[in-house]
């Protein structure tokens, strides 16, 4: 069965947190962004997630995670594309992300490496930038 990508509901938070833990991604503040989070659902429940932290016309793409047994099948790409579509619908013009492990995955979607100094100051105040991700994390941006 192909998973369906839908908006997350508050009841999905435990499953989202479980996916983040399994993927070694930081959970910091995700509960404040459930309204702009997508989940992939299959028979067994939530099998993937991607979230946006919205900051006016800027957003932070975070928490792109797929259940281990479904990795490599394109679900991460589908979630990323759906999150970018959601960003466009929400009026976002610039999407940022931080990654330590997926630096070769995100350029497929038009993301390019930048420095922290080039990030919108409001996004720099997010928990991802201030405490959750190490300074060594790669910073990337995409203009929509």
What can you see in these coordinates?
- This protein is of the alpha+beta class and 144 residues long.
- The protein has a single domain (4-143), classed as Gcn5-related N-acetyltransferase (GNAT) (Aminopeptidase).
- Helices cover 24% and strands 31% of the residues.
- It has four helices and seven strands; from the N terminus they run E-H-E-E-E-H-E-E-H-H-E.
- The chain has helices at 13-22, 75-89, 121-124, 127-132, and strands at residues 4-7, 37-42, 45-55, 58-66, 94-99, 112-114, 138-143.
- A seven-stranded mixed sheet has the order 1-2-3-4-5-7-6, sandwiched between helices.
- A hairpin with a 2-residue loop joins strand 2 and strand 3 (45-55).
- The longest helix has 15 residues, at 75-89.
- The chain is globular.
Name the overall outline.
Answer: globular
Helical segment count: 4
CATH architecture grouping: 3-Layer(aba) Sandwich
Which range best describes the helical content: under 10%, 10-25%, 25-40%, 40-55%, 55-70% or over 70%?
10-25%
Give average pLDDT, whole number.
93
User: Into how many domains do the coordinates divide?
Assistant: 1
Element pattern in H and E: EHEEEHEEHHE
Largest sheet: 7 strands, mixed
Total strands: the figure is 7
Oligomer kind: single chain
- Please identify the top-level CATH class: Alpha Beta
Work out the strand percent. Answer: 25-35%
CATH topology label: Aminopeptidase
Distance between the termini: 31 Å
Side by side, the strands of the main sheet go 1-2-3-4-5-7-6
Unreliable sequence segments: none
Structural class: alpha+beta
Rg, Å, rounded: 14 Å
């Amino acid at each position: 069965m192909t998973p369906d990508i839908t908006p997350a509901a508050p009841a999905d938070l435990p499953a989202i947190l479980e996916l983040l833990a399994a993927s070694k991604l930081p959970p910091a503040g995700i509960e404040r962004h459930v309204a702009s989070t997508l989940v992939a659902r299959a028979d067994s429940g939530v099998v993937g997630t991607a979230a946006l932290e919205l900051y006016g016309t800027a957003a932070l793409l975070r928490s792109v995670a797929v259940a281990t047994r479904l990795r490599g099948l394109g679900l991460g790409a589908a979630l990323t594309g759906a999150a970018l579509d959601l960003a466009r619908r929400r009026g976002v013009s610039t999407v940022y992300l931080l990654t330590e492990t997926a630096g070769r995955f995100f350029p497929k979607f038009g993301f390019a490496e930048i420095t922290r100094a080039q990030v919108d100051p409001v996004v720099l105040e997010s928990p991802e930038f201030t405490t959750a991700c190490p300074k060594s994390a790669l910073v990337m941006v995409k203009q929509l």
